[in-house]
Amino acid sequence: MIEFGSASAVPVTILTGFLGAGKTTLLNRILTGNHGLRVAVLVNDFGSINVDADLVVGIEDDVMSLANGCVCCSIRDDLIETVEAVLARPERPEYILLEASGVSDPSSIAMTFTDQRFRDKIRLDSIMCLVDAEQVFAAPEQMELKLRQIAFSDMVILNKVDLVEQKTVQKVHDWLKSRFRRYRLVEAVNADVPLEILLSVGRFAAEQLDAEVPDHVHGPRCGCPEHAHHHDHAAKFSTTMLRSDLPVNLSGLRDAIKGLPGEVYRVKGFVYSEEDPEHRIVVQVVGKRIDIARDGKWGTRKPETRLVAIGAPGAVSEDTLGRVFLEVA
After folding, report:
1. Which InterPro entries is this protein grouped with (predicted)?
2. Of 22, 34, 146, 217, which residue has the fewest beta carbons closer than 10 angstroms?
């Protein structure tokens, strides 16, 4: 029997990583990003958020309202109480983002978001671990904590690669390979990673996928001027779309997805399944994390599988996606 999550559950992303890795920089990029989501941000301390003054609308108790519609809450006591309060707000968030302390173990935080009381209300979308390419081997006495932060993450963002030589980047890759059997890693400068990889952008409307990405287009647009980058997204990421009107057998789908190349960072979209042909099945893959949920009925819409995969250039093709999603026995 196949168990489905809830497609209406609010997705949660946890940002982890050692002190100074760039979590706050990444958080600010998301807060100011053009994603169209109503985001609730949970942080350990307001002091860890470097929000420009002109973005702040007002502060009430432990809640900071931002000009772009985001809401920041400080975590002072019980995380569960904070999450429940956020979900009870008049304008329910469409996304929850938590910036963990640089010295915290993400496993206990992740367990909170899998609490039974949150079933069908929230789902853990991903755990992103930022690693400072320049300082990853510094503070050897904290190496066990750094490894645990990486081990519990779905994706590693190797940040500040512009500050080191390529041989150092390769050293980090070798170090990770010697300790982890499978991992997903994205290189970044100033925590600049496309929102399509970080968040469940466009997860609700299948018809948006056509507008998002034409078939097999390389390099998702980030909307940033070229001179603002030290790197080119188009050279580092590729996007592939798969569409099919053939029903997919969901039995074993999760194991088949695990067989995707490590350079595939994200897969999202809808599946037309053999087991439940009347409902759309939402598929979300972020790094190592896989979420399969039942959405509403197809109704008057044509049942079809429509998926977008984002990865390194050449990491995934329509043929690869077809073998994974359409040929599952």
Report:
1. CobW-likC_sf, CobW-like_C, CobW/HypB/UreG_nucleotide-bd, P-loop_NTPase, Zinc-reg_GTPase_activator
2. 34
